Amino acid sequence: MPTDALLALQASVTKTATFNGAALILPTGTPRRGLKARVIYSAAANASGSNTVVFSIDVSYDGGSTWNSDFLAPPITLSTTAQSGEIAIPFEISPTSVINGTQIRLTATIAGSGTSPTITYQGDIMLGRP
User: If phi over 0 gives left and psi between -120 and 50 gives alpha, with beta otherwise, what is residue 49?
Assistant: First the structure.
């Protein structure tokens, strides 16, 4: 699927704990058909135990003061065998104020009782449903 390189949500990064990406301003919200955040991940594993990674699109309608995790992807269960894959998180938003616009960010939430969780991922934006 084609993506817009100018609307990258997250450059490739490796994380071992929950991480909030940088905010991206969508001054007019999304088109009526919405957008999708595409997340490509690899080297998703942990040394032992059980951990999960949940990617979400967080939305701020007030210029970045308050964030809501409105759009969630299904959890990725980490194991000792490294995994890779691609997920899409559809989202559709409208700004509540033209002054503030609407900000979005890609968040990776790592939770569980395992040891040494790690995941490498990147995120970009694609057009929503046709």
Answer: left
